[in-house]
Amino acid sequence: MDLSEREFLFELRCCRWVERVWKPARDPAIPLVARQLGTRNRRWDTIVLECDPDALAHRAKFGLEALDSDLLHVIRHAPEEWEYYRDALPHPGYPWRYVREAIHEGDERGILETRRVGNKIEIKRRWPYRDWVERIVAIENKPDLDSSAARTLRPQLEYDVALSLADEVWVATAATDERVEPALLEVLPVEAGILTLEPDTLDAEIVWYPRTLAVEKPGTRILERPTGGGHDASGAAFEYVDPEEKTAIRRQIAERAYERGWRSFVETMRPDCRHFELRSNGQFLPFCAAKGRCQTASECSSRCGDLEPEPPAWRMRGWPLEGGPGKRLKQLLADRRRRRRPNL
Questions:
Q1: N or C: which end of the chain has fewer CB within 10 A?
Q2: Residues of the chain under the 70 pLDDT cut
Q3: What is the rounded distance in angstroms from the CA atom of residue 27 to the CA atom of residue 33?
Q4: What is the rounded (10 degree) CA torsion for 305, 282, 265, 71?
């Protein structure tokens, strides 16, 4: 098993462990798990959203599909009564034509009411948008956390700590018979927690507890770092990020996590290949019958030499066209994802 395959499997196992075992900071908050999400400059392996139960159930009124930043701007500020959209909404900081596009999208999705009065578009909200996420926890997955991996991971964790976009930052590594070396604890930032996970049994041990980061205060986005060495006298480049911008980014991450979850790995694979399977070993994991093992998303693509699309007769099964095994596997994972989102 190569490193990429091991990391991919460990990532899916970690997501399943979080979904089953994670205890939010406040009871009765509900954990909602997603993977491979973040910002343009930083992507996390696993994200845990600790959600207010009532607000999470209310979020279902807007459907499973994510609300992007433009649509969020419209939905959050839409008035209770009919009003011209330019009078009702604060200036977005970008051209109003993008706001009109978001308004039409909200109308098509049935989450915003619109009407035309003369040449003006008036809007009215259907429901208020409630902030449904209480805390965001970011987890980096490193099944083989040796000293080299820790040194590579350190700048990423320092970026997370300085920006403080997530409430907590963790590193999850595979459990072994040996204890975590103290040198690793010294290399990684003290604010990051360390978790050792036994993927097969879903047992875990907390080696180091994280510190809660100041998400409500301005953060620091690290842009450049000195390369190091005795002749490098350059300084780090950074910029401050105000709390309002951080809050907006957190909402956007939460919306994408609500739509995708962590079982969306099948969306970047080829389940329509006749060799693609889902095998259960405590959870559904992708399996390639041609390779005889779990495959990564980069392997399971149109470039794979073993790719054999399903025969047309398979895809035409059912009425009107329910499709073959690949389509049903996607539906199975989609149903599992919907179970974690109440009221859908």
A1: N
A2: 1-2, 179-183, 227-235, 317-322
A3: 17
A4: 170
Q: Where are the domains of the chain?
A: 3-52+132-261, 66-125, 264-339
In contact, 137 and 100? CB cutoff 8 Å: no
pLDDT digits 0-9 by tens, 48-90: 999 999 999 999 999 999 999 999 999 999 999 999 999 999 9
Q: Report the DSSP pairing between strands 120-125 and 83-84.
A: antiparallel
DSSP conformation class of 273: B
The whole-model pTM stands at: 0.91
- Chain segment 296-314, per-residue pLDDT in tens: 988 999 999 999 998 887 7
Count of residues for the chain? 344
For residue 66, give both structure tokens.
Answer: 């994510």
Q: How far is CA 162 from CA 43, 50, 235, 284, 335, in A?
A: 15, 22, 16, 36, 38
114: Cβ–Cβ under 8 A, 6 or more apart, which residues?
Answer: 103, 104, 106, 107, 121, 122, 123, 124
Cα gap 208→205, rounded to integer Å: 9
Q: Where would I find the H helices in the chain? A: 3-21, 53-59, 69-77, 85-88, 96-108, 147-163, 182-187, 243-260, 312-315, 325-339
- In this structure, which CATH number among 3.90.120, 3.40.1350, 3.30.1370, 2.60.120 belongs to the domain 3-52+132-261? 3.40.1350
Kindly calculate the radius of gyration of the chain based on its CA atoms and give it in whole angstroms: 23
